[in-house]
Amino acid sequence: MIHRKYIIALVLGVALAAFAVGASLYQSHVTSNQEQHAAGQSERLVRMHSPVIGPREAPVTIVEFFDPACETCRAFYPVVKDLMQRYPSQVRLVIRYAPFHQGSGEVVKLLESARLQDRYLVVLESLLAAQPQWADHGSPNLALAYSAAEQAGLDMARARADIASPTLEAMLQQDVQDLTALKVDKTPTFFVNGRPLPSFGAKQLAELVAQEVSKAGK
């Protein structure tokens, strides 16, 4: 009888141990998948080629999927600029391109050519100021966009050569692949330290940034 009880206890012990090992392996698999998903999303949000405005080592990153022809992007530009002025050492902006409107891809390349000449911000602001003139969604007047960039001091001969290069086209296509994978379907779309806005709006963006700045300061 004692021998039989010993065998039953042994079998139960082995079963419980096997269950514990299986549960641990399952949890490790789930955790690994979650970490891989987070890492994949992080890579798709920020690429090595992405324009960065603000301190590169800032603890809070705003990622904006941006279309230079988008009126709402133009309206949000001063909102984002104000947040960066409010937190000058804590927040950086990473711009990803979402060329949803006709002609936007070429204007993106114009912006990137400005970055190669260290004229990115002044050209960006000039293009946004002139957006109502050039960004007709049905028939954009890209000559006016080029004119706005030139007025901001862009060397147009160099810019046109850069725009024709396959490097800028490859960069643009990477952004399109990433926005597709992340299911971004409108501009502007914001992520703050990887977190999407709970609902769209300037107040919601400011609140999410404030939360992440507070967390970074702890």
Task: Summarize the topology.
Blueprint: H1 2-45, E1 52-53, E2 60-66, H2 71-86, E3 91-97, H3 104-116, H4 120-129, H5 131-134, H6 142-151, H7 156-163, H8 166-181, E4 189-192, E5 195-196, H9 202-216
Parallel strand pairs: 2-3
Antiparallel strand pairs: 1-3, 2-4, 4-5
Helix pairs in contact: 3-4, 3-6, 3-7, 4-6
The residue-averaged pLDDT reads 87
* Strand coverage percent: 5-15%
Radius of gyration: 25 Å
Termini separation comes to 62 Å
Q: Give the ordered list of helices and strands.
A: HEEHEHHHHHHEEH
Low-confidence regions: 21-39
**Major sheet description:** 5 strands, mixed
Count of β-strands? 5
Major sheet strand order: 1-3-2-4-5
- Give the helix proportion (percent range): 55-70%
Structural class from helices and strands?
Answer: alpha+beta
**So how many helices?**
9
Shape: globular
Please characterize this protein's 3D structure:
This protein is α+β, with helices and mostly antiparallel strands and 218 residues long. It has nine helices and five strands, in the order αββαβααααααββα. A five-stranded mixed sheet has the order 1-3-2-4-5. The chain is globular. The protein starts with a helix and ends with a helix. About 9% of the residues have low confidence.
